[in-house]
Each structure stands twice: as structure tokens, then as C-alpha cells.
Amino acid sequence: HPLGNPPHLRMESLARTSTYVRAYVAVVVLLAAASIVLLFTMSPSGVTPETVSILGLLAFIGLGFGLQLAELKLVVGTVHSSISFIIYIGSGLVFGPAWAALITALSVGGAQLVGRKPVIKAIFNVAQHVVAIVASGVAYLALGGPLPPQPIDEAVLPFMAFLLVFFAVNSVAVSGVVAISEGRPFKDVWI
């Protein structure tokens, strides 16, 4: 065909890509949901519903929501990211990964809803943020990071792991969905 693939083949490719994107999003959502359930069941942070500060939770949720909604961006090269990650990381250090996951989900989800993002994009954004904050919070705790954090000289390695894992998981999750949706190799879109 002189203009590339015939229209029916392009539509088949688009439908296949869409199916792959939905499957990828479903896996990320399942991972996020399972991690929240496991963390609240195990309560590794020691911050229990009886000891958590409701006012503190609401403050972190409000700040995360506001920054996410304001779309204040951190730009590095061609990559644009909301600065709301600062709030999510802070909530992980104060409340632990279970509560940080809840704060992150409510903040990102609320902003996606108010911003009228497409449903699949909104669901993915919530889930990938939750997976990133859970993985990074668990890495922090596994390396002996205290909650809430003590003087930084006692928690440098756990804190660095928290940051590196958060950005790595976030980058891999977003790059994965972009690679699938655009039909490009992961290495070409990894940010």
C-alpha cells in the first residue's frame, strides 16, 4: 500500500496497543491495591489508626492535592513532573508507606478527577504513584530508616534509597506505558 499500512491494519494495531495499555494499567493497579492491603495488614511503620494524626493526614492530602492540581512542574530536559512528589515522600517519612500510599492515592486521584483527566490515565497515574511510594517506603524501612526520621546522619542511606527507588519506579512505570502506547522500544522512551 503506497501510504503505509492499509486502514484496517492500522486500526487492528491501534486496538492491540490499546489492549496492551489496558493490561499494563491493570497490572499496575493490582500491584498498588495489593501493596496497600498488605501494608495496612502488616502495619510495618508502627503508625496505627489509633496513633495517626488525622490533622496531619489531612494536611498532607491537601498539600499533595493542591500541588498536583496546580501542576507546578519540575522540568529536567524534556521531562516534566509535578513537584507534588515532595509531599508524598514527606508523608512516607512521617507516616510510613501504608499511610503515604493512602495520602498519595487521595491527592493524585482527587486532582485527576478535578482536572477531568481521561479515566485510564487517571487510574494509571494514581496506581503508579502508589506503587512508587510503597516501594520506596519499604526500601527505606528495610534499610533501617526510622519513622519519623531522626537526625539525617542516622538515616542517609535509607533516605537516599527512598529517593532513588521512588524515582526509578516512577520512571519505569511511566516509560513502560508510553512505550506500549506508542509502540516503541522501552529503551527509546525511558525517562
Textual characterization of the structure:
- With 191 residues, the protein is mainly α.
- The chain is 72% helix and 4% strand.
- The protein is built from seven helices and two strands.
- A two-stranded antiparallel ribbon has the order 1-2.
- Helix 2 packs across helix 4, helix 3 (85-95) runs antiparallel to helix 4 (97-114) and helix 4 runs antiparallel to helix 5 (119-142).
- The two termini are 35 Å apart.
- Mean pLDDT is 81; it is low at 1-14.
What separation lies between the terminal Cα atoms? 35 Å
Summed over residues and divided by their number, the pLDDT gives a mean of: 81
Rg estimate, integer Å:
18 Å
The major pleated sheet works out as: 2 strands, antiparallel
Number of strands: 2
Spans with pLDDT under 50 lasting ≥5 residues? 1-14
Shape: globular
Strand content: under 5%
Query: H/E series, N to C?
Result: HHEEHHHHH
Strand order of the largest sheet: 1-2
What's the tally of helices?
Answer: 7
Report the structural category: mainly alpha
The helix content, as a percent range, equals: over 70%
List the helices and strands and how they pair.
Elements: H1 7-42, H2 54-70, E1 73-76, E2 79-82, H3 85-95, H4 97-114, H5 119-142, H6 156-182, H7 186-189
Antiparallel strand pairs: 1-2
Helix pairs in contact: 1-4, 1-5, 1-6, 2-3, 2-4, 3-4, 3-5, 4-5, 5-6
